Amino acid sequence: MNNKVDVPPTLRIAGALPLAPAPETTPVRIHPRYGHLVGGRLVDGPTDADFATIEPATGKVLAQVGTADAALVDAAVASAREAYTSVWSKMPPAERGKYLYRIARRIQERSRELAVLESRDNGKPIRETRDVDVPLAAAHFFYYAGWADKLDYAAPGRVARPLGVCGQIIPWNFPLLMAAWKLAPALAAGNTVVLKPAETTPLTAMLLAEILLEAELPPGVVNIVNGAGATGAALVKHPGVDKIAFTGSTEVGRIIRRQVAGTNKALTLELGGKGAQIVYADAALDQAIEGCINGIFFNQGHVCCAGSRLLLEESIAPDFVARLKRRIEALRIGDPLDKNTDVGAINSAAQHATVCRYIDVGVAEGARMWQGAANEPPAEGWWVKPTLLEGVDQTDTVVREEIFGPVLSVLTFRTPEEAIRKANDTEYGLACGVWSEKTSKVFSTAHALQSGVVWANGYNLFDPASPFGGVRHSGFGREGGIHGIWPYVRLGER
Ligand code: NAP
Ligand code: MG
Predict the structure, then answer these.
(1) Phi and psi dihedrals of 305, rounded to 5?
(2) Cβ(270) to ligand 1 under 6 A?
(3) Is residue 445 assigned to a domain?
(4) Does ligand 1 come within 6 angstroms of the Cβ of 259?
(5) Which end of the chain is more exposed for a tag (fewer CB within 10 A), N or C?
(6) Whose Cα sits closest to atom 23 in ligand 1?
(7) Which CATH number is 332's domain given?
């Protein structure tokens, strides 16, 4: 047998094994145009403000998508209200749970299609969509299906009542997973929903719409309206909405908070972050290196909880950075549908410009920039190689602001107090990582960090049973676990 593989010269770099292309070939049907899900039907909606959703790895148009105007948002809210009062809030909770189980199973059955579609629309590697996004989305529906009929046990002596109609607005970095995080707890608790996906990644939400129809979810329980910020704003302002759940930037979160103030709407915000990874000298260093790679280069750094600041104990810094660079040089960047790809495409031209601008600002403010990958990215599409910024200070823009790209700022510290002070020196508070073999040090550090999530000797670990969310400018409210249900219920007397 001839096992010889023709390796392009760019792949013949120390640390990179030569691998033949291994594209995922599951076919996925992409329609030329997508509308919306309203009242249990896929509707076209207005066509005067259609926009294109683009494949980030090629820069080519995947499909046209309709924009829901205020009238369509109104129709979606009306259908959610009708479904809430006539069907969903009256349904025995165990019956609601059955629908969620059905949705979860259908996500599993169509998992490869969802993974391919997500990789094409978002740009993230198939390895992540196949192994992380889609299984976790199914897991969230399974998990919250289990809570549907047990809420009264979770609040002994009280009764958990739904809030009503929820407007849910999600970003483009985990399109299907964010939809699952939002929908599953809301539905389990008896609410109905109008969901607005992000403009650049509407396709898996529309495949999910098909799945909801296949699951025969009663019409109007979930409505999906596509569009840009104006569609989201129409939903936020709509008087028929009882709760807004928003995941996105801190900037838009502030706008929404102002708009909701003084109304009766409940609100949860999951916003930006500037996570720190604290690596003590006594950490298992190879593990910590994997954790740092996972923390910032996973999903091209399009992760709210990305570990974008690396805080290294000074004594290990030079060795750690050298080893980190060697590991980065073995990462493969390119075709998101190739099963060997580690780093995919940046989601949009706009985000690509943002990330590149931040790198330029970092260099202008004195950072030493280093980039690596086992191969050159393709000529078409939007790519940023895994990037380290060394020689940076706490006051530098790249250390303070969320970049939302594969860019890691490297800082050092001498004492745990200095590490904690630097990690907390940010307006955000979403996630941090602590690496040490000494458990007491891990705990004392974790307790001192002002952060909604702290991972110990690991990073970006998610489980539907485990709550996630921020403090400070990273927002409020929790998603995941029983904590993720409370923002969707009103506890009352029996
Ligand atoms: P974004 O610009 O804030 O958009 C988020 C969503 O809000 C999108 O669907 C967007 O629509 C919509 N939107 C924009 N303006 C709006 C307005 N005035 N009123 C109502 N809705 C509006 O954020 P993004 O760039 O998509 O996502 C990246 C951000 O999300 C990062 O800051 C990241 O940290 C954060 N994030 C946080 C979490 C978390 O759990 N804490 C998770 C993931 C992401 P269009 O995009 O279609 O215009
Ligand atoms: Mg797209």
Answers:
(1) -95, 20
(2) yes
(3) yes
(4) no
(5) N
(6) 248
(7) 3.40.309.10
Mind listing the pLDDT tens digit for each residue in 93-149?
999 999 999 999 999 999 999 999 999 999 999 999 999 999 999 999 999 999 999
382 CA to centre of ligand 1 in angstroms = 20
486 and 422 assigned to the same domain: no
**pLDDT tens per residue, range 305-320:** 999 999 999 999 999 9
**pLDDT tier, 8 (very low <50, low <70, confident <90, very high otherwise):** very low
Kindly report the CATH number assigned to the domain that includes residue 249. Answer: 3.40.605.10
Task: Answer yes or no: is 449 within a domain.
Answer: yes
Do 97 and 189 share a domain, yes or no?
yes
Q: What is the pLDDT of residues 328-358, one digit of tens each?
A: 999 999 999 999 999 999 999 999 999 999 9
Interval between CA 110 and ligand 2 midpoint (Å): 20
Catalytic residue among 166, 292, 304, 432: 304
Q: Choose the residue to mutate in 247, 400, 426 for probing ligand 1, maximizing ligand atoms within 8 Å of C-beta.
A: 247
290 catalytically annotated: no
Let me know whether 266 and 283 are in one domain: no
User: Does residue 476 contact residue 269 with C-beta atoms inside 8 Å?
Assistant: yes
Question: Does the active-site annotation cover 270?
Answer: yes
Provide the domain count of the chain.
2
Same domain? 149 vs 134? yes
Range of the domain at 282: 276-464
In a domain, 28, yes or no: no
242 touches ligand 1 (CB under 6 Å): no
Q: Is the pLDDT of residue 46 over 60?
A: yes
Pull the structure tokens for residue 486.
Answer: 């409370």
In whole angstroms, how far apart are CA 243 and each of 82, 90, 96, 251, 267? 16, 19, 20, 19, 6
Mark whether 311 and 377 lie in a shared domain. yes
Q: What is the DSSP letter of 240?
A: T
C-beta 406 within 6 A of ligand 1:
no
Residues 234 and 172 grouped into a single domain: yes
pLDDT in tens, 249-269: 999 999 999 999 999 999 999
Q: Could you give the CA distance from residue 428 to residue 400 in angstroms, rounded to a whole number?
A: 9
> Nearest CA to 178 among 193, 191, 164?
193
Question: Phi, psi (5° rounding) for residue 121?
Answer: -80, -35
